[in-house]
Amino acid sequence: MNKSPSPSGRGGCNLGDLLMIEVKNIHKSFDGQAVLKGVSLTVETGEIFAVIGGSGQGKSVLLKVIMRLLEADSGDILIDGKSIRGLRGQALYKMRDRAGYLFQGGALFDSMTIYENIAFPLREKTKLSKKEINARVEEELEKVGLSGMGHKYPEEVSGGMKKRAAFARVLVMRPEVVLFDEPTTGLDPILVDSVHRLILWGKKTYGFTAVIVSHEIPEIFGVADRIGMLSGGVMIETGTPDEIRNSRVPEVRRFVRGLSEEVSAGGIA
Amino acid sequence: MDYILAIPRSIGTAVLDVLQETGDMFLFLGRTLYWTFTPPLKVNRVVRQIGFMGARSTALIVLTGAFTGMILGLQIYYTLQKFGAEAYLGPAIALSVIRELGPVLSALMIIGRAGSALSAEIGIMRITEQVDALESMSLSPFRYLMVPNMLAALVSFPLLGAIFNVVAIYGGYLIGVKLLGLSAGTYFSGIKDFVGYKDIRDGMIKSLCFGVIMIWVSCYKGYNTGHGAEGVSRATTTSVVMASTLVLVWDYFLNSVMLNF
Prior knowledge:
Shape of chain B: globular
Helix content of chain B: over 70%
Structural class of chain A: alpha/beta
CATH topology of chain A: Rossmann fold
Shape of chain A: globular
Strand content of chain B: under 5%
Largest sheet of chain A: 6 strands, mixed
Order of helices and strands of chain B: HHHHHHHHH
Largest interface: A-B, 23 and 12 residues
Largest sheet of chain B: none
Helix content of chain A: 25-40%
Strand order of the largest sheet of chain A: 6-7-8-3-9-10
Oligomer: heterodimer
Number of helices of chain B: 9
Number of domains of chain A: 1
Structural class of chain B: mainly alpha
């Protein structure tokens, strides 16, 4: 586990043994239907934590609850030991300033070019000059392999490019925590690998803590430091990639092996 | 027993839904107004929205204003002729247009053109998580989406209403003077004698109110859109219907107050 101080240069990330993110017994329902039924997890500083689980298990909801884009019905979320559930207004915005969120579809502003999308948070949140913003944006474009593509609109580029552009928009603000909502969904295996490499490179370069919601088995085992499986609204198992791979929990085993039913020695159980 | 209770229960649920949505709408308006007066102001976005809502609606307003004036010219001339009062054609058209038809019809036209587009734009931003993306960057969607539209509407509605009024009065002139033979002096001097500052002020106040209604409803419906393309489509239709209806209802109440003061 990497507990070295973040090279992000944004301060506030001196971490020792502090827990970066702690989710405690979160419940969330939509129209009376419970999606999260007491989810708890801890993500330590500098760690990449992957949340796996079947479709419709509430993985994206969990990520949005952590970012406070959705409000939990009950439970608590602590960042560096401080609860963020009661935060409002500027206090909430300050918390979000430390984090970045990569949306499943990228969520790039479709009325802006890729360049403008990446420059947007810098223009709105910093006092950098035009020249400095330009340098930062070009740097990020180059890092995510999109040099020369800045003038294109999101609808003019492929799904993989959109994800990389969205990642650049997140990275340009040097976040301490990045939440990835299915960053590789809909991409071909080569692009999946390239996005995963990008995440690992980003972690190494900027030292962020990450939570990744993913379906990519077994690729995610090579990316995450720890993995938790969400099923039926609760985290049914948490462990290192090896622990999850060799789990004795039937549901986890089935999911990891991609089986719709448990296979016993004598056939399908 | 359940069957007997089903009817009052469904009525109660419907009433509660309406009350909840009304409360949500007023909270939404409150938040929009709060962010309107919270600096910094996104001037570029305001100017861009004035261009979209105001400048690009001008041709439509001129066209509808001209035909409204011409129709009024024919209809009012026909009515006044029965009383031998054709000389009052100018003030009759001007008062109708400035106090009532200008603000209302221009508002309905802008709702149809810009209000629907606004609902659809915000709705699509909502379902593609662009609004969440703003939130995740610690940027208020109200500051970036609602406030520029609100300010653009406060500038555009009275100006477009004024353009509508002028064009409609000239439309009436075309029919009354050029087609039906009324003298130009009679037409315009009547307007000067009978139209006062209060009439213009009341018309402007109406335009401002209708601008607020359009932005309030369109943004609210777009922001709270349902799922997928169908949700956006429903939000767009509902916003146009609701905004248009509210304009007419609010117009009645404004008239009730304004005609007594």
